[in-house]
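Handoff note, outgoing to incoming analyst
You'll be picking up this chain. Sequence as last confirmed:
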Amino acid sequence: MAAASARPSGSASGGRLAGRAATAAVLMIGWIALLWVLEIVDFATGHALDSYGVTAREPSELADILPAAFLHYGFGHVAANSVPLLVLGFLAALGAGTGRFAGVVLTVIAASGLGVWLTSPPGSVTLGASGVVFGLFGYVLARGFVDRSVRDVLIGLLVAGLYGSILWGVLPVDGGISWQAHLFGLLGGVAAAFLFRRRRVATGAAALTA
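Most recent structure output, in case you need it:
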């Protein structure tokens, strides 16, 4: 007698989605809270943490690529990044899961930070989470096409409608804003969609016999 493997029920699938949504929400709220705490500490110490920004083409500054992505130049700067980071990070974490999301974020930070280190003007110091924002934007846009997921394509199109105007930030139109962090973060996010794409499982009529 042949018995096909059972598919998960709708309630079980919905429960897993709710669990992933809760995990993604807690993760991103915690992340945003950390950014604000760090900025409060920076303010209280006379902006001592600003020294962890990335200075272009200084070999010792490569170690600051990671911390620079969590620091900002003032409360206005962190406020500007908080909402898009919360929204894009939640959508990315919801679809990717915690492990893949961590890989995506680290890829984006590395790409954005190295791009800043290599191409920023001499003596410039760059910090802020905007490179991550652009990277998550690129990841969410590309993920659906890479994974061939209609749901994620629709999410990407929605995100493009909401935040597509940020793409102007990859152009060198404002000397006080690091377009390098934006551009290389965006490219890192698209690359991460390929690096961390879902493995397609072959489907067939395989059945267990008993």
